[in-house]
Amino acid sequence: VVPNTLPGETPYLAVDRDVLERNLARMAASAADRGMALRPHAKTHKCVEIARRQLAHGADGLTVATVGEAEIFAAAGCTDLFVAYPVWATEPLGRRLSRLAEQARVAVGVESVAGADQLGRTVAPGTLDVLVEIDSGHHRTGVDPGDAVTVAAAAERAGLRVAGVFTFPGHGYQAGARSAAAAQEAAALREAADALRAAGLPVEVVSGGSTPTSGLTGAGDLTELRPGVYVFNDAQQVELGVATWSEVALTVMATVVARHGDRVVLDAGSKALGADQAAWATGGGRLPDHPEARVTALSEHHATVVLPAGSGPVVGDVVRVAPNHVCATVNLADELTVVADGEQVDTWRVAARGLNR
Amino acid sequence: VVPNTLPGETPYLAVDRDVLERNLARMAASAADRGMALRPHAKTHKCVEIARRQLAHGADGLTVATVGEAEIFAAAGCTDLFVAYPVWATEPLGRRLSRLAEQARVAVGVESVAGADQLGRTVAPGTLDVLVEIDSGHHRTGVDPGDAVTVAAAAERAGLRVAGVFTFPGHGYQAGARSAAAAQEAAALREAADALRAAGLPVEVVSGGSTPTSGLTGAGDLTELRPGVYVFNDAQQVELGVATWSEVALTVMATVVARHGDRVVLDAGSKALGADQAAWATGGGRLPDHPEARVTALSEHHATVVLPAGSGPVVGDVVRVAPNHVCATVNLADELTVVADGEQVDTWRVAARGLNR
To answer: What tens digit of pLDDT does each residue of B277-309 get?
Structure first.
């Protein structure tokens, strides 16, 4: 539903407060039911108000991607942060991590001997936990499970406390690939955790999870889940079958600026929606209120939409667009317009927007 | 060349001042040599310091995509602005346009009778010029040349002053397509301009041009060019054959955070580089100092790069990445680190970042 109280200028990001709340509650219950810790990835929302709601729903802490994000959430009162990234700790970054560890329990990812050594050189001794990143099939960062002990031992030698292992099963972001990715995630983490234990190294945390795979693993496999997108969902999650339209909490409000036959052009382009488009996506986003419509092209300030013959909006109409990948969308905006029952009820700042380092 | 004076934390956007200056001078001379006005598109840089340099090089004014961008550059002293977009003027947007027209000569795009009527309703009478947008083959916004008179006449009736016609030949963004797109651009604008003149309507401005096509048209076809990307260039322009690596003024400085065989992972992902990737692109960006390397995947904070066997950087090294589409990259950053002779010499704010409306 298009909110009655519009800013009057589009595009802007509308968050349905009640849908958001249901998404938060559902994931919290799902993790609790399985006896798993939930450490949501805050890179999706970058927003203090949403982080506080996640913690109020029982999250054990937050996951972040960068030290800059960690600083924002520590300042907002979060006392347990995991930077799920193999940080290369230059001197300035090491100083920031040391300061951060005075405010919160801080863990960071490590996936090479060189990276562990560098952390040991620049971070105050005894301040940081590390989790060894495992490659469970996504083939981005992370070591093979058989190499986990080498990295963990290097981290211990460098004065870091090894807390466990983590992975990101990003190869589950394909139609039909979720179950296999979740199984690989569990197997790789189990192999790495067993190897660490056999070498006498501590394994308190076995951390995995993405929104597509988070429902497919159990406490026997993982101790902790790190989904991010579930707070808002997006066109990708719907097209993957992970969420329904009624579970999409964030949409970009856009105005029809042109119509030529069955082609409509909206004023929300890649600078509002983001340009992410997986090979299997139907287009550059979706219109939840026009499910047959296809976003056939995005440029910076234009979304070209093809509609079924004779249907759909006209010039001047405002429509909702679900972006493909909501993490990218939020990172383009300074604020979120919070809507309930069709009225604007609040504005939340995207406090960690753009903090890539 | 990697600057000697590094912020110490990556990713960040480095602008080579001397390359930028040469790019500005070359395009200014190219337009002047052909007797054409140059109205650079400021959406690429969103930066007051660069806009002032463009005007100092003789630009006749600036092009912008949104009213928000226009407000930034008007406040910085630019007195001639063209919003090259078919703005749907809600009441708040109409008020902003009226205020803007007190500071500068303002023209906006129009491409429908409804859009012209709406501008006439919400903008103070006699304050705005309009240019009719023509579709020259890109099939986004714009009317067929044969419909230009209908829109122009509606604009005149609505109390707007018709200044001419414009188009964006975006279909020139493909290998081998530039010449044909430039020819279509010229033909469509000529047909529309002739039709307006035949109907007794004024045509002072015939405006076209994108960076790929800007060198391929003459004063006989167009009175004005609106390229944007040329200030920085990017991997797309190099892969299209429009620019060379020595003409790329902006690169994203990134640190190698992982290396596994010939796969290297950098800390500049889609949240630093942008996710734009045309079907013909070699990957998610290019490494100018490693021309054989391919960016095979981008996630939010990771660029996965495959290098020729045995070569290339190791964990902790800092490398330069040329993004595919620099307009998207700049819109993700708060500032540009200005470099000359390998040293940081200035920091420029991306003043219009995120101003999508």
So the answer is: 999 999 999 999 999 999 999 999 999 999 988
The string of DSSP letters for B78-133 reads --EEEE-S-----HHHHHHHHHHHHHSEEEEEE-SHHHHHHHHHHS-TT--EEEEE
Distance CA B350, CA A295 (A): 29
| Tens-place pLDDT, residues A122-169 | 999 999 999 999 999 999 999 999 999 999 999 999 999 999 999 999
Residue from A63, A66, A88, A236 whose CB has the most chain B CBs within 10 Å, to mutate: A88
> Can you tell me the mean pLDDT for B203-212?
95
Task: Confirm or reject contact between B233 and chain A (CB < 8 A).
Answer: no
Cβ contacts from A onto B, under 8 A:
166
Q: Give the minimum alpha-carbon distance from B34 to chain A in angstroms, rounded to a whole number.
A: 29
Distance CA B140, CA B169 (A): 10
Rounded Cα distance between B285 and B248, Å, is 13
CA dihedral A83, A84, A89, A90 (to 10 degrees): -80
* Selected residues 55-74 of chain A with any CB under 8 Å from a CB in chain B: 65-66
β-pairing, A224-225 vs A205-208, is parallel
pLDDT attached to residue A309: 83
pLDDT at A1: 44
SS3 for A161?
strand
**Token digits for B271?**
């949240």
The helix (run of H) or strand (run of E) holding residue A28 is helix A17-33
Judged by CB atoms closer than 8 Å, whether chains meet at A9 and B258 is answered as no
- Give the C-alpha separation, B38 to B58, whole Å: 8
Q: Which two tokens stand for residue B94?
A: 């109409």
- pLDDT value at A69 more than 80: yes
Residue with token string 């226009």 = B70
ipTM (interface predicted TM): 0.97
Residue B32 has a pLDDT of 97
Whole-number pLDDT of residue B220? 86
Per-residue model confidence as pLDDT tens digits over A260-301: 999 999 999 999 999 999 999 999 999 999 999 999 999 999
CA-based nearest distance A232→chain B, Å: 17
Q: Look at residue B66 and give its three-state secondary structure.
A: coil
